[in-house]
Design brief:
The chain has a single domain (3-160), classed as Gcn5-related N-acetyltransferase (GNAT) (Aminopeptidase, 3-Layer(aba) Sandwich). Helices cover 34% and strands 20% of the residues. The protein is built from five helices and five strands; from the N terminus they run βααβββαβαα. The chain has a five-stranded mixed beta sheet with strand order 1-2-3-4-5. Helix 3 links the parallel strand 4 and strand 5. It is globular, with a radius of gyration of 17 Å. Residues 2-160 form the N-acetyltransferase domain. Keywords: Acyltransferase, Transferase. InterPro entries: Acyl_CoA_acyltransferase, Diverse_Substrate_AcTransf, GNAT_dom.
Length: 166
């Protein structure tokens, strides 16, 4: 039986491995800067802001075959929290078994139980299998919205120019 569960500290190496696999799948194999120490601190440190649910392999003692990494966001319009799904990944050999659907259903259940307004995420425009899957569960794209990101040297230049008062 498949088990979707909250990650524990001993899962960190497997989760990091899946993060690297996801980067390869998304055609960014060298983009991951995360480490086991950073991931452990963000998941289980003094002020954890990130959550992970994992899919245990249905075969006893087998490796974790998928994960959903998420954190809370806030809707000023709804006046309540929501879940932002940063990454959802299931190993290729385990796809088609319903694990991705179970992970998303778990997050939706958390949102409903806690009174959150939404679960949202981004998907690469070329990832048709994922887009089709998301549509099949009733998710809809946010028409008219584009994701913007400030990072690297641009973030440094812009952030260093800020006048921040204490």
């Amino acid at each position: 039986m498949t088990l979707i569960r909250t990650a524990v500290p001993s899962d960190v190496p497997a989760i990091l491995g899946l993060i690297h696999d996801l980067a390869v799948y998304e055609k960014e194999p060298d983009a991951v800067k995360n480490t086991a120490a950073l991931l452990h601190e963000n998941l289980f440190g003094a002020d954890p802001g990130v959550h992970v649910h994992v899919v245990d392999n249905p075969e006893a003692g087998g490796p974790i075959v998928g994960f959903a990494l998420w954190f809370l966001n806030y809707s000023t319009w709804e006046g309540t929290m929501g879940i932002h799904l940063e990454d959802l990944y299931v190993r290729p050999e385990a796809r088609g078994s319903g694990y991705g659907k179970q992970l998303l259903s778990t997050l939706a259940g958390i949102a409903v139980e806690r009174g959150y307004a939404r679960v949202e995420w981004s998907v690469l425009d070329w990832n048709k299998p994922s887009i089709d899957f998301y549509k099949s569960i009733g998710a809809a794209p946010m028409d008219g919205w584009h994701v913007y990101r400030l990072e690297g040297p641009s973030l440094g230049r812009f952030g260093n120019a800020a006048e921040v008062s204490a």
